[in-house]
Request: fold
Amino acid sequence: MLAEGRLTAGDVRGDVPFLFDHAVCLILTSRCDLACTYCYEVGREPCGDLPWDAAKAALDLVLAPGPASVEVAFTGGEPFLADALLRRCVGYARAASRPPTRLTLSASTNGLFLDGERARFLAANDVELQVSWDGDAQEERAPGTSAAVREGVARLAAADPEWFRRRVRVAYTLTPANLALLPASVETFLRAGLRTIVVSPAWGLPWPPAGELERALDGVLAEVARACAPLVRDGEPAPVTLLRPPQTRAGGDDGLCPCAAASPASFAVAPDGSAWGCS
Reply:
């Protein structure tokens, strides 16, 4: 059991050869100070925080063999509600990784815990950060949080402008209620200095019929493209990833798509210490 700190490669691979150049997603906590209706944690029983022994076992598993590259992602819940654990994991992973291993650390957050000291810690450790922020629709999602998230993002930019531009992105969850506010939100993000904006639809909501939705999307995306046009003319990638050329994943030597789902190339660890091969 990973919760007992005894997970080994054999616990997740079965008879499949263990693959390195892989990733682990540590779900540090099931706690969150928000209750977004579209969150995957809605309706689940809370299970507290991930024990350190389990987190260490997962890090040891991905780092010990010295792979060419390792990605460690921290999520939740709200991972900064388990801030001491996150910092311990970051320090341990940094200390345990050795060349030639390339270590990538990332975290996702709702943006409500981004004080100056935490921003400097993230920048100093080159942590890639995704801020879940619905821009001009933030009050629709979580009343009373707009100013806090906006100020938190400003602290990230002030901590290290180069790191902020390179490693911080925003995630906008598209819903029927905030679709029309996407262009204004993109302008808000650009004014904040953000240069990677990920837009993802929320599933299971009452979206309009296909034809009506397509017309609405065409109009909204045309406005978004106009907002991004000055940056594109200056030679930068389109900040909204929907407007970038699609990325093609090359197949492996066997011609199969290298999906990490249910494979030993990537696994996730829940706060109760359980692990599965799809992160």
In short: The longest helix spans residues 210-233. The two ends are 18 Å apart (CA to CA). The longest strand covers residues 102-109. DSSP finds nine helices and eight strands in the chain.
